[in-house]
Amino acid sequence: MKMVKSDQLLFEPVDTFLLRAPLLSLSHDHRKASNVDIIPILKEYINRAEIREAIAVASPNLFQSLDKIYGSPNAKKTRNTISSLLKFLIRMSSRPTPFGLFSGITVGELGPDTVGKIATIDKHQKRARPDMEWLLGLVCKIEGEPLIADKLNVFFNDAVYKTTDRVYLHYFSNCGQLRNNANQERKDNISIKKTKVVEYVQSVSKDPISISELMKQLHLKYPGASNKDIQSLIWNLFKQEFLISELRPPLVNCSPLSYVIEILERIPEAKQINSILKEIESDIEVYNQMPLGEGLNFLHRLTKKMQDIQPNKQPLQVDLRLACTEKIRMNHTIGAHAANAAEWMWRLSKNEIGIEHLREYHVEFLEKYGVNREISLLDLLSDEKGLGAPPTYKYPLSTKPTKASQVQSTHPLLMEKYIQCLRENKKEIKLTSSDREKLMDMETDDIFAPNSGELFIEVLASSSEEIDKGNYQLLIGNNIGSQELGQTFGRFTDMMETNEKMDLMKEQQKIEKIFTDDETEYVELSFLPQSGRSSNVSITQSFRNLHTAIATNTNIQNEKLLIEDIMVGATLGRFYLKSKKSNKRLVFTSNNMFNYVNAPNCFRFIREVSLEDVKGIQGMHLGILREFAFIPRITTDKVILSPAVWKLNDQTDGLSDFSVPIDQWVETFSGWMEKMQVPDWVFMAYGDNRLYINLKNRNHLYELRSELRRRGRVQLQEVIGDYANKQWLKSPLGNHNAECIIPFKKKHHVPAKPTVNINTVVETPLEHREKEPGSDWLYVKLYGPVYKQPKLIFEQIQILVEEVENRNAIKSWFFIRYHDNEHHVRLRFSGEPKMLLSEVIPLLQNWYLTQRQVGNLKKFVIEPYEREIERYGGLLLMPLMESYFEKDSVLTAKLLELNNKQTFKEPLELVASMYIIYFLTMYGWSHRKQLEWICRWGEEQEYSKEFRPYRNEILKTLDKDENWKTLREQKPLLFSLFTKNKNIIQEISDYVTEESITTTEERLIGSLIHMHCNRLLGTDRDREKKAMAFVRQIIESQKHWEQTKRTIIKQ
């Protein structure tokens, strides 16, 4: 099958790739691990120095238990040791995922041919550095030494938000020690009383200041305070992380220990501990230079020295760079096929742009804030001031309910192919170029594809020469890839050559220049996890100019972007992030593979919002097929997109009964294998973990049985062909399994995503925005049957309004209709606070009781009135807007009354469209401007059938010549009602023309018209859509009407 033409492809490969491979060979070592008589084999392996060192790094506990292998085979401890060693040996010979010294990485390049030769084990390069849990524990201990802490610089944590009386900490990292403190619960929602002293501390520690200098500043400001009280306050703020010390290492620094040593170097009181740290740093470098297999005794002495100053079972974190006889190279055709495979995986992913739980949150945001208001990130995520965290957020735990998980639908193409596969009794689904064309027609626009990413693949070929001849297959990994170029490389940045790092950086910069505008800034984002060991995968080198760090420091080379500078806004389609300081859109990235679902809410939110305009590569949209006991292999051209999968669980006949004798269980399992046609060699997979096992090997089968018993389910993946011999990567040990991480980028011909128009609004003070009961506004919600709303508005509410107006108890009023969980009318009165409380509320209460008795209402609720200031042009324009709301309320109430009396022969939607035309014309928009604006609403011919009977009469009626002569003469009542709003419409127009407003003119007009439809037609958006469709057809027809009129006049 030929590949699709290159000019039609969505992605293209980047020339630099990452290769990962296990330490031992698949063809020799794994074969030995598959021997039935495994104990002699294991004894042989644990006597090899490089194996012992690798085990000591990976699992000190297992290393201490190695001698137990010489015990009785029936003893439990011996069996456990054998099981652990077997799994480790299988992993060291078949799994390329980096894990201590079990596997390693190197960097390769695409080229005209393939080169794949690993050097001998003693040539590989170790990179050890302190485990971050150990280092952060030591930092925490040093911070607790008053004499040293006194000299440390601190800064006020910017991940805080304030209410009227408290200062809340958004995230408490516990300095990465939560895992070590078994008795300590996770702390969320830490807060302190907001006092003038605390606010002063915050103001003087915006920039780093030593604790001793901070104390001096407090003594000068508050001379009456005792030294003990000031010390207690600062120490309290420090321990609770309201103050962060400079000693915490940035995670965008590849040498955290060197950073700590450098900070302590200038503090005399830290000389002793720093001397030990320098020795440890030197010893780590010595260990790194030792060939693998020669460093075991030194490793033990080094870890003992580290444990003496800070207890930790595994104080070192070790990675391995594979040495090669020459630079690893892969034929460029592999890159082309990988980029094509990435496109297939993207097109077969769930057809959703952005993150599902953010879509619900986006709706909630629009309802509360609209599209013209930007909210501080931490205020938004707080329960006290904003919406709280979105559903599924965990740090701190969101209070919003999570939608019940539903069985996802299967991609239509895959379901069709699956059914065909069953009919034809085949085990493979083959996707063709014509299938790809179908997907291009039915799926998301290409602009929403990721700008870059990385694909995890295995190249199945017996040699480099066979790859160059085209004799190969590509297999997509269980872990499909990353969301952005370079993320998989991030953890290994310090193990890469300078030119390799520069190549990736240049590619990244080129991609961003092509697909983003100059008004967008990219920011590197990091945070200190509560479990410090998780930081090991987050340490990286960032090439970004801007860096935001949560609960730790930024790198000195990077400009710091504070959390408090981040604003959240929304268009009608999605969220965006903005810097308050630079007024530029922000996109946050993290150059690592840490799963941000387990990050603090603010971190997770800004990462997810940064992906709001992307349909990610999530893996094939299998939906319900994932629940089936067998899923066929899915292929296209030379690529295996997904291997065949068999599933075992506690429902599988006979296999969940572990009380039966092992021989009986094995016999039952063999029957299942035969029935399901499972091959002997498979991968036992869970997540991105997998073990290459032989189901006819009792030792391997015991591991499967144990896994099924422990987890209740096991997934078996097929092994493709002669797997052990289809390995192109060679070493003196034999053939090695290899995984290539191929970066890809979107091709230049794909247009950039639409730019986001961000606001330049200054946040309005709370006292102008929120009008509480007892202020100059009274806001009441009136709940009742929706079908009774029109009469309630034009009759009963009018009676209430007349009564309060006759008593001079209000200055103005207006209403809107709304539907959250229930339909209701929102009624608002402005006036003197005293009059609203003493006159309006008692009248309102009596009026409500009457309405409840007759069934018009069932409850009423008084709430604060939050003015949508930015939506309606700004604080200065708001009084005029609220005056218009009142006039529009009077107008719509009267129109509802006339409609109830069947005064109109036209439907109410058409009456709404007539007023909208009048409004736009009196506002001063030309016909051309009206046409440009209305064309953004809906489809061109929508509701044309419903409009056609009224077309000619409406066009005559809405002829604005001679002061709307036809409207005035033929529909005098409507003309009289419309013209009552003429002056205020023109006032709004004059203001918008002369003054700057906080939204666009088009949005402002759209909001006023939307609320007119709301008052007149209710909350049914289809009725509004119909009215706007009529407006469009009137405006489009007016052009032809004017031409016809001129022709008649000439004749």
TrEMBL record:
It comes from the Bacteria. Residues 48-704 form the Lantibiotic dehydratase N-terminal domain. Residues 777-1033 form the Thiopeptide-type bacteriocin biosynthesis domain. InterPro entries: Lant_deHydtase_N, Thiopep_bacteriocin_synth_dom. This is Lantibiotic dehydratase. It comes from Alkalicoccobacillus porphyridii.
